[in-house]
Amino acid sequence: MSRRAIKAIDWAAITTRVAESQRNELTAFKAASDQILRRMTANPESPPKLDWAYYRKNIKTPGLVDKFQKEFEAFKVPYPVDKYTAEIEAQEKKEEEAMAKFRLEADEMIRELTNQITKIQGLLPFEEMTMEDLAIIHPELAINVDNPTPWPHDKSILQAEEMEEKDDH
Questions:
Q1: Cβ–Cβ contacts within 10 Å for residue 51, how many?
Q2: How far is C-alpha 156 from the chain's CA centre?
Q3: Distances (CA, A) of 88 to 33, 50, 91, 116
C-alpha cells in the first residue's frame, strides 16, 4: 500500500455513510489502519544507500565487498502484484454509468411530474368545476349519453355485466 493511498482516506466521509450498527467495526478498522500507517511512516520510504567505498576500504578480503554489492543489487524484493485495482476501476465505471442513467431517468420523471403538477394547479378548483368542465378535462371519466352506463359507472361493473351477457348466450 502506498503512503499516498493511505493518506487519501477520508474517514469522516466514510463514518457518515456507515450504519450506526457497524460503527464499532469501522473504528476498529481505522485503529488498525492507523497503526499500520504509524509503523510505515517510522521507516524511510526507500532504504538508505550503502557506502560500498567505505566497506571496500575497511574490509581487507579481496572481492568480498564486490560480491556482496553484486548480490545486493541483484536481489529484488517481490512486491505484490496489483490484480484488483483494474477490477475495482471497471466496477466503479460500471456503477457510474448506472448512476448517470438513473439520474437521467429521475430527471425525466421529475420533469414529467412537474408538468403534471403545473397542469393540476392550472385546473379549476373542484368546488367550482361543472360536469361539462370535467368532461372537457377528463373525457374518459365523463358520462357518454350515446352509450349510457349503469351507476356507479365503474369499469369493473361494466366488465361484470359483459361477462353475464356472454354467459347468457
A1: 9
A2: 44
A3: 20, 39, 5, 41
**42 neighbors 52 (Cβ within 8 angstroms):** no
Do 15 and 26 touch, CB atoms closer than 8 A? yes
Q: How open is the CA angle 94-100-102, to the nearest 5 degrees?
A: 105
Per the rule left: phi > 0, alpha: psi between -120 and 50, beta: everything else, 82 is: beta
Cα gap 11→23, rounded to integer Å: 12
- Are 40 and 3 in contact by the 8 Å Cβ rule? The answer is yes
The 10s digit of each residue's pLDDT in 40-70 is 888 887 878 888 899 888 888 888 999 999 9
Spatial separation of the C-alpha atoms in residues 68 and 53, rounded to whole Å: 12
- Report the pLDDT value the prediction gives residue 106, as an integer from 0 to 100: 97
Give the position of cell 373542484.
126
Preceding peptide of 62 cis, ω within 30°: no
Q: How far apart are CA 98 and CA 96, in angstroms?
A: 5
DSSP state of 77: P
Q: Three cell numbers at 77?
A: 524484493
